[in-house]
Amino acid sequence: AFKAAVLIQQWYRRHVARLEMRRRCTWRIFQSIEYACEQDQIKLHNFFSYLMDQFTPSSSKERDFISRMFISGESYKEAELEKYCDYESIEVPDSYTGPHLSFPLLPDHATALLEAFQQKQQLHARYVLNLLHETRKHLKQLPNISHVSTCYSEEVTVCGDLHGQLDDLFLIFYKNGLPSPSKSYVFNGDFVDRGKQSLEILVILFTFLLIYPKEVHLNRGNHEDHMVNLRYGFYMRLKDLMLYLFFTFAQVHGKKILKMFQNVFCWLPLATLIDQKVLIIHGGISDTTDLDMLEKIQRDKFTSVLRLKKRKESSRKAEIQAINGERESGTDAAANEAAPRLSLQPQSAQAPSTANRLEFSRWLRQTVQEQIDTCRRLVDISESEPEELTYSSMVSLKGVDDEPCWSRQEEWKQVLDILWSDPMPQEGCRENKVRGGGCYFGPDVTEKFLEKYSLQFLIRSHECKQEGYEFCHNRKVLTIFSASNYYEIGSNRGAYVKLGPDLIPHFVQYQANKTAHMLNMTQRQGFPVALFAKISRVEESAFRALREKLFAHTSALISAFKAYDGDNTGKITLSNWATAVESVLRLGLPWRMLRPQLVRSTEDGMLEYKSWLDDLAMEQRSQEHIQSSMLEVIYRNRSNLETIFRIIDRDHSGLISFEEFQQTWKLFSSHMNIELTDDGINDLVRSIDFNKDGNIDFNEFLEAFRLVKQCP
Q1: Rounded distance, CA 664 to CA 666, Å?
Q2: Buried b (16+ CB within 10 A) or exposed e, 360-373
Q3: Residues 329-351: pLDDT tens digits?
Q4: Confidence class of residue 680 from pLDDT cuts 50, 70 and 90?
Q5: Is 625 a catalytic residue?
Q6: What is the assigned CATH class of domain 102-308+411-510?
């Protein structure tokens, strides 16, 4: 009996160990593919930035059009935003049966919204615009770093990424209670994208923010970003929803709502500080993170932290001269040589002596403002000009005589690091090449940062964790993630953390999906079959995504395999297969361990790679019988093509106008050194407009790409 018990125990431990290994491999696959997609996003914008640096428009109209199309940081004057937010001119029809809002908001309005969204109702666009208008007014008065005290409420609840998963937010409110004067919440960014109910989440959070401004706090995440939204679905979901519910309104006012969301996002605070001891930021820190700088920068300048780089002043000046036919006078040249950074500004009065610090600071502010205004006029790109002073602008003006001036690049890096960075177990701080933005920071960086600002620990989000939360850096960094079933049903739990006056974290975990919840109940009762079933389902989803990734790189894989097949036998060793696959995909996965799930049969330890790739193609080929090589190209480029389409579609109408396409083609042709006349471009755009409606939709855009790639 004793031997039998030992054998059963050994079998069970081996079985659980195998399941754990499979679970970790599955997790690695999901995360590697997710981060690779983020890398593609940044590479795409670097490409457009390069194009903008190399392109010289032929006219001021062409320059203005392209600048407005591709500069992601476009913002608007106060008067323009007020015009965009003209919600009073929008009538709510009598047939509308959804919730109604009136301002100032009351708790009953929030309750009505929750009930309406549970019943799959939608809020009318007039109320959405009104809510955005009021939210923006409130956010503009908030500091960059919000301060929360546990003295005024028994505890503070901190929630991580929600990513458009409304069921998770409902479950949090069900378990923990709605926001109230005695129940404070901090929502740590990434409210949108990926999930299908981002709009509903924003409406609920903004409503509670206005009802309880001292108890509800919202931090900005890396997905509250104009350029990220173009790729990961929020803007497309919002546009589709508006078209479906309010077709006439969307055609006329859809752009207004998108631009208002864009502006509201850039006014979200960057961090929250609890009792001066716990700092809450979305991503992380770096070895250069400076809270004093973060407190004083004008955060609304960064509509997107992935914004395209500004063109060099020398290139801009040469372009202006080429367009306007201006020649530089000797006096201007001398002035430029003496002060190259102010080459485009009108000559200011002589600088006062630096001995009088106050007078010098005033002169410096005036000079810089003149330079900014001149640059705006030259490129015709508006910047926000608030009618009233905001909190951050007042802080900046107050400290200008006492603090050093920071460059825009330094300020941008501060924001980028706190939104995009991740912790690592190794010491030091290095570039985050996995995501393509931010940095990796080690425990030594955390320790120095906490000591410098007298903090106990950091709370951040930004990374999906299987249990919904995870400590690292000697329990000095806590990651909290609130979107359960993020990759697949059963893939992970969501969690939130509660902090009382003692600042000891208390966690609550959950899974919003009913199926996943049933599996977890069985698992807790000690039934391993349920655990096996859950892992198998999640594992199947991960390998399906990985096989799609492999298929999308078929051509590159064949070239890599042939490098190991010197005799052209069509076979390579499994070790060489693993090395070649990693050299192409660069996902950092344990390919030898994953091989049994990807390679079904081998002969004498050798793999017939051509037949293996044919099998991958058979799995992915659609019912339309698109040839494998074409399908491979579409799989590999679809996300980039969608993002490019949305960038060109400046008004987010879902259609590219002929003018938008013509100017974009000029940008590409200048990069590829292709000479094409205006008539040639017109012929090209008409050939892509298959239904001859005067616009190009995404299906036409994708079809044109497919036809071009099919041509020999």
Answers
A1: 5
A2: ebebbeebeeebee
A3: 444 444 444 333 333 333 444 54
A4: low
A5: no
A6: alpha beta
